[in-house]
Design goal:
Largest sheet: none
CATH superfamily of the largest domain: lambda repressor-like DNA-binding domains
Number of domains: 2
Structural class: mainly alpha
Distance between the termini: 25 Å
Number of strands: 0
Order of helices and strands: HHHHHHHHHH
CATH architecture of the largest domain: Orthogonal Bundle
Radius of gyration: 15 Å
Length: 147
C-alpha cells in the first residue's frame, strides 16, 4: 500500500488553521507524540480519530487521507456505526463478486477479520479501508455514511 501520501493533508489542514500538534492532540484526546506519529507517517490515524478530525474541520475523509484531491465541506457530526460500515463493505464486496477470502487476501488478512468487519463486530482498520478505496475507486466518506 502506498503510504507516502496518506497523511500529507493531515499536516496541511493543521497548518492552514495555524494550530500546533499539541492543539490537535488535545482536540482528539490523544498525546502529542501519538498525534505526531500520524503526521510523520509512523502510524496511521485510527478511523474513529479520523472521523473526529473530519467532523471538527467539516471536511471529507477522502481529502484528509489523500484518496482524493477534492476538498469537500461536509457539515455533520457523524458518529461511526460499525454495523452500517460493515454492511457497506459487504455490499461493495458482493457488487464486485469477491468472496470474503478473496478480499482478505487482497488486504493480507484473514477471512474471519473480513467477517468481523462485515458483521459490525469490529470497526475496519483505516489502512484496510484506504486500500479498498484506492483499489476499487471508492469513497471512505460513503462507506462510513458521511455523505
Amino acid at each position: 500500500m502506498k503510504t507516502e501520501f496518506l497523511l500529507d493533508n493531515l499536516k496541511n489542514i493543521r497548518e492552514e488553521h495555524d494550530l500546533t500538534q499539541l492543539h490537535m492532540a488535545k482536540m482528539l484526546n490523544v498525546s502529542q507524540p501519538n498525534y505526531a506519529r500520524w503526521e510523520t507517517k509512523v502510524k496511521i490515524i485510527p478511523l474513529v480519530k479520523l472521523n473526529e478530525l473530519c467532523n471538527y474541520f467539516s471536511i471529507n475523509m477522502d481529502y484528509v487521507t489523500g484518496i482524493s484531491n477534492k476538498r469537500e465541506k461536509l457539515v455533520n457530526n457523524n458518529v461511526l456505526n460499525k454495523i452500517d460500515i460493515g454492511k457497506n463493505i459487504r455490499k461493495f464486496r458482493l457488487r464486485n463478486n469477491l468472496s470474503q477470502l478473496a478480499l482478505a487476501k487482497t488486504l493480507n488478512t484473514t477471512q474471519s477479520v473480513i467477517s468481523a468487519y462485515e458483521s459490525g463486530k469490529t470497526l475496519i482498520l483505516t489502512a484496510f479501508l484506504i486500500e479498498i478505496c484506492l483499489k476499487y475507486n471508492l469513497s471512505m466518506d460513503k462507506i462510513c455514511n458521511r455523505k
